Structure formats: C-alpha cells, structure tokens
Amino acid sequence: MLPEFVWHQWQFADDAEQFAPGAEIRLSGLHGAARALAIAAWVGGTRRPFLVVARSDEAAAGLAQDLRFFLGEERVALLPEREADPESRAGRVDTLHRFSIAAVSVVVASVPAALLRTLPPGQLAQAVLSLYPQRSVAREAVIQALTAGGYRSVGQVSEPGEYATRGGILDCFPPNERQPVRVEFFGDEVHSLRRFDPETQRSLGPADRVTILPLQEYLLTEEAAGRLSTRLRTRALRAAVGLSPVLVEALEQRRSMPEWDVFLPDLLTETESLLAYLPADGVVVWDERRRSARRSPPSASTSRTWHPSSRRPKSAGPIGKVFRRRGNSTQCCDWRRLQDHPVRAVRQAAR
Q: Whose CA is closest to 43, among 106, 114, 97, 96?
C-alpha cells in the first residue's frame, strides 16, 4: 500500500518515535496530491485520529478527496461550514458524530468551519437517537426528539429531514441514512424497522437498527426555547423595537431556522471548540501556503522540518503553541487563545 511505503521510505517513523504532546513537525516541498499522501502515511503509521485544517473550503474539499483516494471513502470526513442550507448543517452534525465515535480516521475542515463553536460531544451523544426492534421507547418521546432536532412534520415523507405519523407507525428520513425508515410501535416498544422507497412508499426490507441525528448543532427543547425567548425579548426591549412575527411564530412552533445560529450560546448550556472532539492522542495538521508557513510565532518549543529531497529531518527552530482555548461567550474560537491542549501537530507548507 502506497501510504505504508511512504511511511517507511521517507522515514516518518523515526520522527513519530519523538512525536510527544505539544511537539510539531514541519513538512515542506509537497505539491498537489503529495500533501494528502504524506497525511495518509502518518494516519496509517501512527494509527491516531487526525484533524486537518485547510485555508479555505475549496482547499479542504480537494484535500479530503485526495485523502479518500489513499485511505478509503469511509475513513475521511469533510466538516463543512455552517451554511443556511439543510444539507451542510446536517453534514456538520454527521461529521462531528462520526468523529466522536471514532468512525473516521481523518476530519478535514477549512479555517472558517473549524473556528465555529458547537455543542459539546456529550450533548451530541445524548441527542443521537438509536432505534432497534424491542427497544422500549414511547412514540411521543421519539416525535419530541425529532422536533427538537429540527425535523419537519409532513403528511408523507419524501425528503431528508422529514417525519410523518399515522397510528402506531412513524416514518422518518435521517440525512445520514440512504433511505427513510418506517418504525412500527407496539405500545411503548419498537416492534419493527423497515426501509422504504420515498417515491413509491413501498417497503425495501427490514432494518436492524437506525441512527437518527439532529439536523443542527442544537436541540430546540422547551428549556432552550425559553432561554431564546427571554434573550429575544430582552434585546427587543433594549432596542425599543418589536419582535419579528416570523421569529415569534417559529419559536412558538419550535421550528428550527438558520437565524437561531446567532443565539447558539442561549440554545446550549455550554459550547465547545472542535478540539473537544479530538482525543488526547489526536494530531492536528495545518495545511498552509508557503508564505504563511514562515510566520511561526515564537515559543520555547522546537519543531522538526522535513523535505522530500533530503529524506532526513533537520532542526527547524522554535515554534508556537498549537492551541489555546477561551470561554464560550463568542460564536467562534480563537486558535491563538485556546486553552492548553496536549495535541500534536504536523504543519505542511504547500506551494
């Protein structure tokens, strides 16, 4: 396998033995897909989770595509920016969930996508709904979870993010699933699960389990809606203006909308940075332009640099701390002021 060959041929293994928490290794002279190949070699050689931060969405998408070629489709996930469209919002939740349960080896994100604060891993785990036959759970409780997670109630499910009820049957289409699922309840117990065609509504066969993720990075529960209502009314009172009827109606109906992202600190009891999803042995890769790679902030730490033409690492001088964390009062994190985190870093200088 090519990444394994590169790991040994380029002697990355020698550096890995001294790759302690807080250390940084600099790779330079990498062009095109060679950047992804180097990361793939480190992923396979260290067997650690990796967070790759690129300068833009376009660069992140291209790097993720190259990494999938070397590592496989299922081992790499792209964290999109938090946009207004439901697909990107659900995609962020799906990537965070897969990263939290170690279902992917590498998460690639642009700087804007990585800086956004989000819900803590523990709260995301509690928001994930897992259904399987003979599980004891009330149908009303599932409906409440779907509504809080941003799902829309419709007469007939045809698109991701929708659910429909009739009698003891609940149809739901989680965006992380390829087909919608039909849940049949017998009292307060899941009797059966079946996937179905959203166009014909015909059954496609039984399902052993279905995982339902929220559609956004918060749950619009009664408590969260109360906090948000208080904040909206307080702001309107201070500004001496009336509340928008659209916002009032959406809040009363517990309807999720992109405008609520501004009030994320009110919707969540606490927020976290993306680093909260990275295990203690995780590695952060900075994919940089060559000119920005020469602007490393001073620190007592020492890095290693490597170039394909030399094969052997050489001293590179001082580098800065990778992360410091601050409080949850803002929408975004400041990488330079994040709390001390025992994270390892690989910094790539791409031309």
A: 106
- Report the pLDDT value the prediction gives residue 349, as an integer from 0 to 100: 55
Q: Which positions ≥6 away from 341 have C-beta within 8 Å? A: 275, 322, 323, 324, 325
Instruction: Give the residue from 114, 107, 30 showing the smallest Cα distance to 64.
Output: 107
CA distance 325 to 343: 12
Q: What structural domains does the chain harbor?
A: 2-118+272-350 (3.40.50.11180), 129-212 (3.30.2060.10), 222-260 (no CATH)
Which comes out higher in pLDDT, residue 279 or 301?
279
- Is 253 a residue whose pLDDT tops 90? no
CA distance 329 to 316: 37
With a CB cutoff of 8 Å and minimum separation 6, the contacts of 111 are: 53, 54, 55, 56
Q: How far apart are CA 161 and CA 139, in angstroms?
A: 18
